[in-house]
Amino acid sequence: MLLVLKPNSEELGREAARVVANAVRRNPALRLGLATGSTMLGMFRELVRLHREEKLDFSRVVTFNLDEYLGLPSNHPQSFHHFMRQNFLAHVNVSPHNTHIPDGSIKGDYQRYCASYERSIRDAGGIDLQILGIGRNGHIGFNEPTSSLGSRTRLKVLSKETIEDNRKFFAAEEDIPQCAITMGIGTILEAKRILLLANGSSKAAAISKAIEGPLTASVTASALQLHGDVTFIVDQEAGAQLKQQEYYQRVLEMTAVLTPERL
Ligand code: F6R
Fold first, then answer.
1. Cα 101–216–235 angle (5° rounding)?
2. pLDDT per residue over 62-80, tens digit each?
3. The domain over range 2-262 is classified in CATH as 3.40.50.1360
4. For residues 80 and 69, what is the distance between their CA atoms, to the nearest angstrom?
5. For residue 174, which of 34, 97, 127, 236 sits 20 to 30 Å off, Cα-Cα?
6. Reported pTM
């Protein structure tokens, strides 16, 4: 595990974009797992800038988004389809054939749909680099507390905290989604490399539990402790409750000397 501490969310976004851009330059056909949400905005902004100003080429990159709200059509302004178009996909040269986002408008045989999403990841050869945010309750994707640590893509009922966090985005109470389709923890853990981003004081408790707490389904991000190649990039506020900050800094310095390619 590597922890990179950044002074603010702007620098966090730039650092995350640097990691993604390096991965794309090394492997132009990168299979990239993506998240949505406010934490991702700085990273997407910087990736769009790198595409425009430094010709970062996404033409062969294949993307898989983690999740989508159930019941929202792709043109709904709060859908993750809309978020991705608005903040990233419409501004870079990712081929529409290479983008995958769970379909929130499906009805009926959810299990079959979710199995087909898993199959599309497998058929593409698996995810090389998965980007994650984290919820206040420690969720990754929409794997809410008590999710099975071996779970696969499936329908998930959203927790009260998540619904509360979403309230401000929806005009009417009955419009707030209650469920989502999300990659499972087991799906996420199969990515070759994982990058989790967190900013702001509201994430400080979740970050400290995910990194320094016990492995528990009550904080599903703690499952990342089982993964062999995870980097957390957090700003000062989100890292404020970590007890071992000095150690993480030494690990980073030694990594820069011994295995700089990991950075
Ligand atoms: C969204 C996702 C979620 C978010 C998390 C943080 O695709 O997977 O886990 O990353 O809820 O959201 P923000 O960044 O809005 O605080």
1. 65
2. 999 999 999 999 999 999 9
3. yes
4. 7
5. 34
6. 0.98
